[in-house]
Amino acid sequence: MLRIEGIALEDAHESCRPTYRQLADEIGNHHQLAVLAHRPAVLTHLMAMLAELHREQLVAQRYIEIAVVTASRINECQY
Fold it and tell me: What is the pLDDT of residue 61?
């Protein structure tokens, strides 16, 4: 359950919709994208940078998943 209500792709500001759509298709994580859609510049620039790092595979996907799961457990995420 999100603590901040997310914004669906259709309701996101038009300036960030292309990035939102691309990242949703490419890396998933719709919850994070929906929350960051409140700040179009953050969604567009920060998530684009993270997606590029993901594409370049500078850090093994296994380590990224471990970090995500660890942070989720620390934050007591329900999903």
Answer: 79
Q: Are 15 and 22 in contact (CB under 8 A)?
A: no
Structure tokens at 44: 């567009």
Are residues 36 and 43 in contact, defined by beta-carbon separation less than 8 angstroms? yes
Summary mean pLDDT of the chain: 84
For residue 34, how many C-alpha atoms fall within 13 Å in the half-sphere facing its CB? Answer: 13
> Distance between alpha carbon 73 and the CA centroid of its chain, in Å?
17
Query: pTM value?
Result: 0.64
- Report which of 72, 1, 77 is spatially closest to residue 34, judged by C-alpha positions: 1
Could you identify the residue written with the tokens 């500078």?
A: 58
